[in-house]
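Limitations

Structures in this collection are predictions, not experimental determinations, and the ligand pose is part of the prediction. Treat each record accordingly. The example that follows, with thiamine diphosphate as the small molecule, is included so readers can see exactly what is and is not provided: the inputs are given verbatim, and the output is the predicted complex.
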Amino acid sequence: MTVTDRSGDAATSPLAASVGLTDADLIAMYRTLALARAIDERMWILNRAGRIPFVISGQGHEGAQVGLTWALRHDQDWVAPFYRSIATCLAFGMSPRELMLAQYAKGSDPSSGGRQMPGHYGHPAHHIVSVSSPVATQILHAVGIALAAKIRKLDQVAVAVMGEGSSNQGDVHEALNFAAIHRLPFVFIVENNGYAISVPAEKQISVKDVAMRAAGYGIPGVVVDGTDVLACYAAGRDALERARRGEGPTLIEAKVTRLTGHSSDDQQTKYRSEDDLAEGRAHDPLPIFRAQLADAGVLTEAIDAAIADEIEALVEDATDFAEAEPDPDPFTAVDWVYAETWPSEIPPPWHPAGPATTPSGGAH
Amino acid sequence: MTVTDRSGDAATSPLAASVGLTDADLIAMYRTLALARAIDERMWILNRAGRIPFVISGQGHEGAQVGLTWALRHDQDWVAPFYRSIATCLAFGMSPRELMLAQYAKGSDPSSGGRQMPGHYGHPAHHIVSVSSPVATQILHAVGIALAAKIRKLDQVAVAVMGEGSSNQGDVHEALNFAAIHRLPFVFIVENNGYAISVPAEKQISVKDVAMRAAGYGIPGVVVDGTDVLACYAAGRDALERARRGEGPTLIEAKVTRLTGHSSDDQQTKYRSEDDLAEGRAHDPLPIFRAQLADAGVLTEAIDAAIADEIEALVEDATDFAEAEPDPDPFTAVDWVYAETWPSEIPPPWHPAGPATTPSGGAH
Amino acid sequence: MAPGRTGYDAIRGRPLMAIRTFIEAIRDGMAEEMRRDDAVILLGEDVGKKGGVFLATDGLWGEFGDDRVIDTPLTESMIIGASIGAAMNGLRPIAEIQFADFIHPAFNQLVSEAARMRYRSNNGFGVPMVVRAPYGGGVHGALYHSQSVEAFFTHVPGLKVVIPSTPYDAKGLLRSAVRDDDPVLFFEHKKMYRSVRGEVPAGEYTVPLGRAQIRRPGRQVTVVAYGLMVLYALEAAERVAEEGIDVEVIDLRTLRPLDRETLLSSVRKTGKCLVAYEDNRFGGYGAEIAAIVAEDAFDYLDGPVSRIAGPDVPGVPYNHALEDWFMLNPVKIADAIRKLAAY
Amino acid sequence: MAPGRTGYDAIRGRPLMAIRTFIEAIRDGMAEEMRRDDAVILLGEDVGKKGGVFLATDGLWGEFGDDRVIDTPLTESMIIGASIGAAMNGLRPIAEIQFADFIHPAFNQLVSEAARMRYRSNNGFGVPMVVRAPYGGGVHGALYHSQSVEAFFTHVPGLKVVIPSTPYDAKGLLRSAVRDDDPVLFFEHKKMYRSVRGEVPAGEYTVPLGRAQIRRPGRQVTVVAYGLMVLYALEAAERVAEEGIDVEVIDLRTLRPLDRETLLSSVRKTGKCLVAYEDNRFGGYGAEIAAIVAEDAFDYLDGPVSRIAGPDVPGVPYNHALEDWFMLNPVKIADAIRKLAAY
Ligand SMILES: Cc1ncc(C[n+]2csc(CCOP(=O)(O)OP(=O)(O)O)c2C)c(N)n1
Ligand SMILES: Cc1ncc(C[n+]2csc(CCOP(=O)(O)OP(=O)(O)O)c2C)c(N)n1
Ligand SMILES: [Mg+2]
Ligand SMILES: [Mg+2]
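Predicted complex:
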């Protein structure tokens, strides 16, 4: 796909120039956003069709995700994402097949080998930290990664991402304080969609902007509009550069919208009004970015159609591939509790190597 | 002691008038400060004499403690203090005898019946929440107390106190956020002495003033000089009134000095320079407040001498009393695990009611 | 579940029996306690308008309003810590932790604070509160929505731990927990919420804490269980009954304080004891039961005190093949019974 | 402690033996590992200039500087969480928790994160880190400076738990822990820091994880212990030896993974097993040991698997009269041995 090649096209519209990128970059960003959306929509279809029991979605967050993490250097910087980070993971190197394997929880799923729920991405080679469910813990992992980078004198920046509800957890306070004291190469991204499941922002957070908390750590706090992909890009890039200059962490809050229920287990109409939902749809980053690129003459109908075709094929391929992959062998479930196998950690009796087959004490 | 009677003397110097108090109030405050110091000094003497194995001190913090909590309404408002809160507890109703019983850990110690280390004060009747050792937990208890006051429509304000090092704990973030969301009648006092044991402020906290964190919760953050007892009083009173008006929490940071080692187990000369220690001694609130009251003509030498005599007698009495009280009966150690006694919670074999005396299974 | 065997003697013959699901019984219990006593409040994530992610509190916000049903921020330490404070100032909070797996951020508040407040203050302060949390696997919840956490808390003096296995008990025990003057952790197996139904009287009743229940009397093997494992043990008992093995099933109901009498009397009668628990085997709650039986019923034992429990891997894996491998079920329990019976 | 009985066979005859206190051996172990491997860093509260509140890290900040010996803020969850991240990015952090009692704010990071990282990522990520913490009572530390916390963590698959009882083992096991690719909790009984001395070779050696040690061979009763209780058990064994009771004392050293072989062989030989632990009895680590013995050595048992442990109260109370009541000691252990021996 030449149109999406990040280096192939040196054309630079005023829009691209305004953020120091080329048109090809903008197209590549748009493609990532649209691809993330398409994978996400497919997840819901598969869920409704009974193919995958659980979906947790990034729809509405993709603009912020692609923009904010676009400047990261693949396989060099680090991301500790969260369950909505589909576009982030895609932008940072995971393939549609890899993302779809996580939805199907197949044995070859690189995130967890089918051990974790969908949405719990991870990829060691791409420096994507394994997502767990208890929220906010990952901020400390990213801070520790940044600490190691500093001590080992590696040119790496670590990024942690979570929702605004999660940012109220104690770990966030402890992490920002430590990262700021040591001016660690760390960026904290909060994707504020106004809800923690059903709890609206005003019952979750005592301030309008999570970014207001940055001042309490002596670090910059930046608010960006998550539908403004290029503003997100600029904010992410600036924070990255600041971190690389040794000036310490930045907190970036992106205002986004959650276009779906919290997950496939949630009925958001129970707690959100029709107006609220409509307002959310008006902040869908995908059509906004598409229109922006079209207005700027960067995205032609032809390119858009070609991208759509490519995405369609990619999603189809990823789905077919993941669907066809085998489930994990149940007897691998004992693997990787520790780096080595300890004979004294005995599998259960229904396991081939369980106590039924190993000699157990007594003359039973 | 008429000179210390809080209601007896209506004389009002300009100094007293400046904060809306009478001279008698100022004298009473001074007396509390001096008494706290005298008890504290006695603790160290007892420790060096081998009478009590552990001391943790409030020396240097007393000005802030007396000032900030003076406006509290006894047995109505609540305080969740910390291990340096000797003057706070004294100002809020505990007697020298009660404080000394805690140092000796005698059976009649109202804080814990000798179960806790010295410094872990508590007094249900005075609404002084039992201090534990893991720092910062008490902020959530105070917030919960304030929540109950609000729900039960009681005219009560809850105060939590801790050091600046402790304020970095996750619980503080979660507490301030919740208290601010619900505009609870809550005041958070940080006594910043520049050290968490040996760790200096710049390695503990990423900002100069803990009060800078208040803005991140949308609440006022106030810095007061802990040697300026009347400024502390005014700040505490304002926060209390704000809370009572339903306007929510306030964070007050008092800059204080730690005149002693962290505890009797610590040698602070290992990590503090002589200059630093001298600077600390120059910020001793007791002589500063004494001089201020003398300059204002409120504290005469005669009054000061009378107070000194009274304090001397009180400390002597408290020491003798506590020393003479019996240790707890070891067999009470099984009491109050739960509100009732559960026969299935079996005491150990060396206990009179242990399994040796209760029939245990088998024909042993 | 075999309702005929669930030991409803206390209420037999009452006319106002209704069939309720497990979660309805819990919801009813909360609602009735809240109506009875203004001091009872609810707090947790999504417990308000949404009614909880499992709908355990559905309708309560509508009935009791913002002051008594509080949607908290996503902060578990705060939920528990503020509940402790509220309990010290006259309320009786019921805190919901959305999944038991997410109780860990509040571990310090539970273990260092709630459990020790009465003891450390020499009975100066108490903490009458209930912490409800759905636990357990078999629902495609993976590592972090399946955990059994009871062993962490049954080890802590000062805490009480309850795990009901029937709608009747769930309601009756929850009421006792709310009225109790100490912190009670109340764990509900989430797989039972809608799949288990049972008779629940409409009127006022409680089930006391600290008493086990013999769900099925038997002579040859005692199976000790709680929560969902009681239902699986009963099913396993039916299976092996056909083979002539007569199993007694004990439902502990309150894990701490433990009803030693019922436990030990049963094992002294049968001479064989199997402890079934879903949690990881090593250091799980069942280890304490086994240790007590081994020490206090030694002379009566006709076979090794045995355990059948969850494998020692860090969590319930997600993929159904892996999850099925992890979970106990009636077949696995029946196998363990057979092995012990044949000893 | 009787050095002649501590089983230093592996190093017998080496010339460069030095007598070191328990805490010196730990300090030496850290220093030598840090010299050997740049990836090893230290972090915790007061570990820098002050050298730790017990002086375990005294001198290390001077030798290794700010980058490798980090005085952290007073935030335990951060200490563990950042160590996890640092371990994922090429370091081998040794995190000090000032007192084991204060590990609870980090419980979520340890149980949900450190323990599960390798498993949940299907071996994609590992967390090679050591968490050191002083535990245990008998030092006037009261409820919050005396706690034994091992039972919370030995229950968690993915964590390893080590509790040494001699300077030799402390150093050798700490080195193995630092080199291990998984998270190891390393608990040190604080009462032993200065009161226990023993021979430690100057050169390079390690003691492998996962292996128990018979500290004293005997024929009649096996006493299983770890940490300070090993020393008390040895003293108790001496006492009852005069009465003709021949006791074997097993020092588990690594609590998880457990050395089942050494444990079970011993009990199969003696037929009697007493587990001694300082922590609260109910649901303590010793319950698992008792349960394993009861199940896997049943046919060899000549008496009930017995436990002698800390009372079930929420913490070690402060006043010496109360603390003495709480603490195990050689006399209490000897009484329990006599009772079991007489069975
Ligand atoms: C510690 C913890 N508590 C509760 C949950 C259950 N939970 C999962 S996501 C979520 C809401 C998160 O809200 P937010 O951080 O705003 O992110 P969003 O889902 O809105 O993107 C909750 C409560 C959890 N995963 N972890
Ligand atoms: C959770 C926890 N971690 C560690 C400790 C050990 N500790 C006791 S006091 C203290 C320093 C407290 O510093 P700060 O909050 O500034 O109060 P200060 O003692 O200076 O008044 C530490 C680390 C503790 N009590 N609790
Ligand atoms: Mg949100
Ligand atoms: Mg301080």
